[in-house]
């Protein structure tokens, strides 16, 4: 079946189509909802598209303030053409990640081919195409999906410089651009480049003309990053993520990223970063990755050492923040795909005759079975698990309320707190030029958006009886942030039911009500 890899005319397109389908099918409905980070990234792109300014009115910023976490802007700018094509929708917000994820599969094919051969390139691409870890983040609007894509492309161009040294400059530029994708890259990329320089110093010295220009290009492009890191905005971001200083805790967290539970069984503890009962890698990859790492030792290619550097360095940025974070370590997904592909390639090389065919049949069968199990859980079970973390039906609730004739709509800040403010302009489809005039700023608690008001009902002396109120559903009356129903009643008002919105488990998540004074 896969004994001949002399022609990619069928295999590579088939792998890429598989990768794309796994990343775009039901993209607008699974995950079932839209997280605030996704809405913020998308609305900033929508705002850039129409006004060349972000949601705060800043002209073409390098970093987007968002909810005061100042996110790298590259991903947002890449979203702009897709928002133009598909509109300000959940699908339109997520399709950028799906395209980037599929493109990464293509790049990994060429990277593994450059390091080893075409056969291992195809197998590596296949593994990344079906990898749960990579699929998951290719289906949500998180900018971290850019990290493995640009990093692998940078490394590919570096390897091409052995044949054409001029690629050193392009590789250097891309490595620097990779730093502007996600905060963990600010640590990982410089450390990786130090390892790269140590391993390939002879190549760099031999081609010192291009190496010099590569260093100059990198330094120039890196200057804005240094300025940002020393700015109040950069410091605000550092304070937000909470960098650890306890050495023992950092070491412990570092090794957590090599645990079997994190990699193969339980995964990231956040239900937003994985599906239940599955980790980022398939359990059948355990022997493949172990075999691959051992077989690499005897591999003749000198490029193998950079794979070990990649493996050793990948947890370092995340270890300074927390243990077992799948999103902060997304850069390692291509590496595990390459090692798995390398192991399978070697196993089939070692096998002969009927044993070779049996090995191929068994491996393909196991891969297909695991993909089916993952797909079944993702499509049929995951949308019903933890619907609250994706704010399921909140968008539908806001859209419904926006279409009513009420002059005033009060959004309770108990509905995922004030940081869910961005859900209103996204689902109400507010024109950016109008939204920017409201001067919304969650840090300064400026949360009025025309007819929409985000309020803490408990702090209001009186409640406006002419407004429509968006509250948590009855099922969430035990919300520790407050019980809107009881607050309304204790203030001497009663609710008049308008509409409720239930998730896929038939649980009422949100409700729209009028209120009236008790008589």
Automatic annotation (TrEMBL):
<dbReference type="InterPro" id="IPR050297">
    <property type="entry name" value="LipidA_mod_glycosyltrf_83"/>
</dbReference>
<dbReference type="GO" id="GO:0009103">
    <property type="term" value="P:lipopolysaccharide biosynthetic process"/>
</dbReference>
<feature type="transmembrane region" description="Helical">
    <location>
        <begin position="188"/>
        <end position="205"/>
    </location>
</feature>
<feature type="transmembrane region" description="Helical">
    <location>
        <begin position="142"/>
        <end position="159"/>
    </location>
</feature>
<keyword id="KW-1133">Transmembrane helix</keyword>
<keyword id="KW-0472">Membrane</keyword>
<feature type="domain" description="Glycosyltransferase RgtA/B/C/D-like">
    <location>
        <begin position="75"/>
        <end position="228"/>
    </location>
</feature>
<dbReference type="InterPro" id="IPR038731">
    <property type="entry name" value="RgtA/B/C-like"/>
</dbReference>
<feature type="transmembrane region" description="Helical">
    <location>
        <begin position="305"/>
        <end position="321"/>
    </location>
</feature>
<dbReference type="Pfam" id="PF13231">
    <property type="entry name" value="PMT_2"/>
</dbReference>
<feature type="transmembrane region" description="Helical">
    <location>
        <begin position="327"/>
        <end position="345"/>
    </location>
</feature>
<keyword id="KW-1003">Cell membrane</keyword>
<dbReference type="GO" id="GO:0005886">
    <property type="term" value="C:plasma membrane"/>
</dbReference>
<dbReference type="GO" id="GO:0016763">
    <property type="term" value="F:pentosyltransferase activity"/>
</dbReference>
<feature type="transmembrane region" description="Helical">
    <location>
        <begin position="85"/>
        <end position="108"/>
    </location>
</feature>
<protein>
    <recommendedName>
        <fullName>Glycosyltransferase RgtA/B/C/D-like domain-containing protein</fullName>
    </recommendedName>
</protein>
<keyword id="KW-0812">Transmembrane</keyword>
<feature type="transmembrane region" description="Helical">
    <location>
        <begin position="357"/>
        <end position="374"/>
    </location>
</feature>
<keyword id="KW-0328">Glycosyltransferase</keyword>
<feature type="transmembrane region" description="Helical">
    <location>
        <begin position="279"/>
        <end position="298"/>
    </location>
</feature>
<feature type="transmembrane region" description="Helical">
    <location>
        <begin position="166"/>
        <end position="182"/>
    </location>
</feature>
<feature type="transmembrane region" description="Helical">
    <location>
        <begin position="212"/>
        <end position="230"/>
    </location>
</feature>
<feature type="transmembrane region" description="Helical">
    <location>
        <begin position="120"/>
        <end position="136"/>
    </location>
</feature>
<keyword id="KW-0808">Transferase</keyword>
């Amino acid at each position: 079946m896969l004994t001949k890899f002399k022609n990619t005319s069928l295999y590579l397109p088939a792998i890429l189509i598989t990768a794309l389908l796994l990343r775009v099918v039901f993209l607008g409905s699974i995950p079932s909802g839209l997280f605030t980070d996704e809405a913020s990234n998308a609305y900033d792109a929508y705002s850039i598209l129409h006004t060349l300014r972000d949601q705060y009115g800043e002209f073409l910023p390098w970093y987007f303030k968002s909810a005061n976490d100042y996110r790298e802007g590259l991903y947002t700018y890449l979203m702009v053409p897709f928002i133009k094509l598909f509109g300000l929708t959940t699908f339109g917000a997520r399709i950028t990640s799906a395209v980037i994820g599929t493109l990464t599969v293509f790049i990994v094919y060429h990277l593994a081919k450059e390091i080893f051969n075409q056969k291992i390139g195809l197998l590596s691409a296949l593994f990344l195409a079906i990898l749960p870890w990579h699929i998951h983040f290719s289906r949500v609007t998180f900018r971290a999906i850019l990290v493995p894509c640009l990093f692998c492309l940078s490394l590919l161009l570096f390897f091409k410089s052995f044949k054409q040294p001029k690629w050193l400059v392009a590789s250097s530029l891309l490595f620097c651009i990779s730093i502007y994708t996600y905060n963990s890259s600010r640590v990982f990329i410089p450390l990786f480049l130090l390892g790269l320089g140590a391993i390939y110093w002879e190549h760099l010295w031999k081609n010192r003309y291009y190496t010099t220009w590569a260093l100059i290009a990198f330094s120039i492009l890196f200057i804005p990053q240094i300025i940002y890191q020393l700015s109040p905005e950069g410091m605000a971001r550092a304070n937000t993520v909470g960098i650890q200083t306890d050495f023992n805790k950092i070491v412990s967290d570092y090794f957590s990223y090599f645990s079997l539970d994190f990699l193969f069984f339980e995964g990231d503890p956040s239900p937003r970063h994985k599906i239940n009962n599955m980790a980022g890698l398939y359990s059948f990859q355990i022997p493949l990755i172990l075999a691959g790492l051992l077989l690499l030792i005897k591999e003749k290619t000198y490029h193998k050492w950079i794979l070990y550097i990649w493996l050793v360095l990948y947890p370092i940025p995340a270890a300074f923040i927390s243990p077992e974070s799948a999103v902060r370590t997304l850069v390692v997904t291509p590496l595990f795909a390459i090692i798995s592909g390398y192991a399978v390639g070697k196993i089939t090389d070692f096998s002969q005759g009927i044993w070779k065919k049996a090995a191929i049949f068994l491996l393909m069968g196991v891969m297909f079975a695991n993909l089916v199990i993952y797909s079944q859980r993702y499509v049929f079970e995951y949308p019903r698990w933890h619907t609250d973390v994706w704010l399921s039906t909140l968008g539908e609730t806001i859209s419904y309320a926006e279409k009513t004739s009420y002059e005033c709509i009060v959004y309770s800040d108990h509905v995922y707190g004030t940081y869910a403010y961005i859900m209103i302009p996204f689902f109400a489809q507010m024109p950016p030029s109008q939204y920017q005039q409201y001067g919304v700023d969650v840090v300064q608690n400026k949360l009025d958006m025309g007819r929409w008001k985000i309020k803490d009902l408990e702090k209001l002396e009186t409640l406006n009886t002419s407004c429509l109120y968006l509250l948590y559903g009855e099922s969430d009356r035990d919300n520790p942030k407050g019980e809107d129903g009881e607050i309304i009643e204790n203030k001497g008002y009663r609710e008049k039911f308008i509409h409720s919105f239930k998730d896929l488990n038939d649980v009422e998540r949100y409700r729209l009500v009028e209120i009236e004074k008790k008589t």
